[in-house]
Records
---
Amino acid sequence: MCCNYSKSGDAVKNIAMVVCVLGCFAGGLIAGESPPDQERKDDVARHRAIAAAHEAAAKCLESGKKDEVCEQALQAACKGLAIGKFCGMKH
């Protein structure tokens, strides 16, 4: 029987084993929270670049320029970075 508490030594061993297993599990969870890897950093950089392109497009539109002009500038800024006419994120 796994949890035979008739002997105090066995109970202590069982409790120690449970604490050890839980400690290892918690340690694994903490170790899993490592700093972002390179792929994540690249994804963040792409989001920021796309955001900058959209901000520039917004300023272009605010300046009163034609939609076509601002869309062309947005497409140029997003070339190779995003997809579609309106600079969507590649996922």
---
Amino acid sequence: MAYTAADVKKLREQTGAGMMDCKKALDEADGDFAAAEDALRVKGLAAAAKKSSRTAAEGLVGVAVTSDGNGGTRGVAVEVNSETDFVAKNDQFQDFVRNTTQVALGAGSDDVEALKQAAYPAGGTIGDVLTNNVATIGENQQIRRMKTVSVSQGVIVPYVHNAAAPNLGKIGVLVALESAGDKGKLEELGKQIAMHIAAAFPLALAAEDLDADLIERERKVAGDKAAESGKPAEVQAKMIDGAVAKFAKENALLSQLFVMDNKTPVAQVVEQAGKDVGAKIVLTDYVRFQLGEGIEKEESDFAAEVAAAVAG
């Protein structure tokens, strides 16, 4: 069965495979377009499965916000990882992160696996497109996490530090402000708080929200230091409590000193802003996704990798 150059072009557009791979697939399928397409998809899935074990700690964080039409607002942050920073600059990858983040806005939960089953705007599911991207771009890529925040009245303010493209970057922040106040002024406040969050890296909204295991580790470290002081037990106990309280204050958003003046707690900044706009403002939630945080990156010898590739 003969095939034309138009068939090669069409097969390439539908599968994302390279031109020579498409030509070879059509040759092996004796011109049968459907068989060639199936063969390329199987090949792509196999390649994607092989790449899925490789560490992906680069990529992009996407943020998006929408209004529910009734005064409420919803925002979402999504982290999608790749193996190298080069892929983060790839238009195909950026389009995928942007579209996936928009789809995530309508998701009913922060379940990544459920998000992968959602319909992709250009067809298929998000998971299907992700697998195809792994096969065509040639790097492992993963949707790592997502988080949604919302307010019934007020604003969700998005912020991306050092954006690679609009609403895409390495640090993505969302700030949820519940208030009946002027939205323009709330946006200004939210932007300043978002910049603070990007810089100050709070670990929780309030001290009581800090992870219990984290607090216990800090208490142990403080206990070890206090023991080394040789002071009486009652003094050591106060030293430990003071160290833990200081840690909580410095790592909870509401008690952190606002980076804009380095002297006013964020909670007071929000309270004062409420007086200025004539309506109470409550900072109800936030998101801070920093690309690759917590992922253990593999050390590699780039020169050796190049030599191995040439030898292969």
---
Amino acid sequence: MKWKKKFQYPESTKTLQKSFKSKIPSVSLILKETMPEEKKIALKNWIERVGKTEADKIKIDASKRGDLMHGYIEKFLKKENLKTQEGTDKAYEMAKVIIKNGLENNLEEIWKTEAVLYFPDRYLGITDLVGIMNSKTTIIDYKQSNNPKQEKYCDDYFLQLAAYILAHDKVYNTKISQGIILLATESFMFQRFVLDGEKLEKYKNLFLERIDQYYKKL
């Protein structure tokens, strides 16, 4: 894999927001504010089942583990030392699962990691990697999960990818071929979810609908 500076991406979401006349929402905020009712009910039921304290702990632990995992993958791509810190072994092993099964021998070019993307006047976000994978222009997000995921429960992942692809295509006049989720579970299982072809077009349209819902609420 090789690094190739193909486009000039914004330095950060903070500097990007300063360039706008008014603040625009993140992809994650749009998805949260337009969450379908059945998903809200399912989330509420889960919190009631495990208890708010335990639910908060699970979310915080997962967030910390995810941040560490992302950091290790970033170091690998930059050819930096992957030395672990005490108490972070699980995140390190999960990162290795994604590196070995998802990135090595598949990723050909890296245009940007932690790429700040935006759709003018509508939304912004950060995707984990933009480049070429298996000869296709690709946007990649890394995910971690306590348990394996069924594809039917990956709607938010696909909507995120679609949002990033719409933004990249709009600003840089590209035609990104695919979005890919590389996921590692706590038990070190690897999963790969691909968004392309008709499915990609479907989720682009679904995300555009969610944007409309968000701004109508305002």
---
Amino acid sequence: MRQLLPVSGLLLVLLAGCSDAGRSQIRIVGSSTVYPFTTAVAEQFKRQSPQYAAPVVESTGTGGGIKLLCAGLGPQFPDIADASRRIKPGEVADCRRHGVTDLVEVQIGLDGLVIAQARGGVFAGLTARQVYMALAADPFGRGPNRARTWADVDPALPAVRIHVIGPPPTSGTRDSFDELYMQRGCETEPAMPALKLRDPAGFRRICAKVREDGAFVEGGENDNLIVQKIAADPHSIGVFGYSFLAENADRIRDVPLDGVLATYDNIASFRYPASRAMYLYVKAQHARAVPALRPFLAAYARESTWGREGLLARRGLVASPDTVRAANAQVATRFTLLDPATL
């Protein structure tokens, strides 16, 4: 990683509009999973630092948020992208093509990508292999998916139609679902790890492509709507972040994954198979023109915010290990730049 470089005079001209009333705020876009956490920090920041305007936070999905962040420099472009996965090398390259060369990456905590059902739901548990076999367009490369009920996948499962409501392709949660459920389930078949090495594109087609016949329904970027839909239908399951499960425990419950419950401790220890990290990506080149940017990031990185007993833990975010929090607090306060070679 390298330290923040001086901002050029040209950039200051580009960002001059940030000082007027219409662009005095920090603008944040990105992940629907991270959205409630960043919104909570933004509200606290405004209360504790009234000299700054309240940050504007939008839920656009991780992919959409990073694309907006990388689109250029100036007051019309956002300052921060929330992300439920790590930024991709191709996205960093897109940033650089548009002059966004200095990004600060901060891991803000952990999350579990859960499968959940209504309180009266019929599922005792699922494995990643079962989820893959139910939702893959071409399970193990053996032809189109003909399963209509979960019992078609495994006779031990309920004989109810396969109906999973999950994230759209623009969402970082969808990328995590592909990796932590679909590909992991696919790799339980002995031939698939070898295919991954021999033909990565073929592996992704077989192991990550989701069927399009109604068994999997894209629920959009509003995870609360997915919660509402599965709470009303005991035969459906939904895919979203752990915080939405924790906040709606009176209406929904998790479906254990590979025999492991989605709990705070299981996610913190990575015992839960679908545990993942959450991130912020900050456009360091906006720091001098948007004075609130540095203090906002410092406020996010306080122990009282993202620690085990902090504000975000009470909202359902799982705290990163102590050493990880300490390292990322230094990155946040020093504005240490992301080294793309580490991706």
